[in-house]
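PROTEIN DESIGN WORKSHEET
SECTION A - STRUCTURE
LENGTH: 100
TOKENS:
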């Protein structure tokens, strides 16, 4: 016999599930922001958008061939692999950040 006094995910409405999912995303963003702030990093780094096939003025490589800037991981809730952080900003030779 089930104990109906204990609420579980089975009893949540679709609206409740959506609220919980949104809360988890907001919590992950808040956590990532707090971690960046504690580390002394900009919360919102300055970057520009660019095509991956743009060529770097200094080394001649395409932008996608430059390494990721590991100082700015994306929010953990957006990671494809839960066991390692993911990055989206590439660090160019002149120190500028680009999002491809």
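SECTION B - SEQUENCE
RESIDUE ASSIGNMENT:
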């Amino acid at each position: 016999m089930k104990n109906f006094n204990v609420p579980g995910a089975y009893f949540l409405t679709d609206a409740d599930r959506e609220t919980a999912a949104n809360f988890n995303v907001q919590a992950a963003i808040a956590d990532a922001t707090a971690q960046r702030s504690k580390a002394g990093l900009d919360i919102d780094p300055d970057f520009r958008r660019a095509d991956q096939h743009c060529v770097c003025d200094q080394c001649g490589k395409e932008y996608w061939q430059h390494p990721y800037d590991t100082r700015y991981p994306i929010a953990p809730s957006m990671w494809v692999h839960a066991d390692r952080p993911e990055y989206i900003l590439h660090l160019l030779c002149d120190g500028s950040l680009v999002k491809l």
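SECTION C - NOTES
The helical segments are 14-38.
The radius of gyration is 20 Å.
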